[in-house]
Write a structure and sequence with these properties.
126 residues, mainly alpha, flat
């Protein structure tokens, strides 16, 4: 494995751990309003965390791909990530009848934790 790819994978795993911890804390806080709220936050937040990891696995491939291959892998992985997230959100809200606000709150917590983790990684490198 290339050194750059290995470093990117290590950083992403570290970010995913922080993201999962933030989601678990948010789900524990949401339990105050009931178990369905806590489960909705946990389901949507961990879905996005796992989708980020799977997306990165597709995008960070071994070897040296061509420019078109690298961009294609990146686009496919991001589209697949958001399709999975949309399907899980639909299942949580429409099929399982989980609270929509709590489901979206879990998604927002996971997104903000990812952004803060990525920003933190960039500022610590400088």
């Amino acid at each position: 494995m290339l050194k750059v790819v290995a470093e990117g994978w290590r950083r992403l795993k570290r970010q995913a751990l922080v993201q999962a911890c933030c989601v678990v804390v948010a789900a524990a806080i949401a339990l105050y309003w009931g178990v369905p709220h806590g489960f909705a936050v946990l389901l949507s937040g961990l879905t996005l965390t796992i989708a980020h990891l799977v997306s990165a696995r597709f995008a960070l491939t071994d070897g040296v791909p061509s420019a078109a291959g690298a961009i294609g892998a990146l686009v496919v992985s991001v589209v697949a990530k958001w399709v999975v997230v949309a399907v899980v959100l639909w299942l949580a809200i429409a099929v399982l009848r989980l609270p929509a606000i709590a489901t979206l709150a879990g998604l927002i917590v996971a997104l903000m934790a990812h952004v803060v983790g990525a920003t933190r990684e960039l500022t610590h490198k400088i």
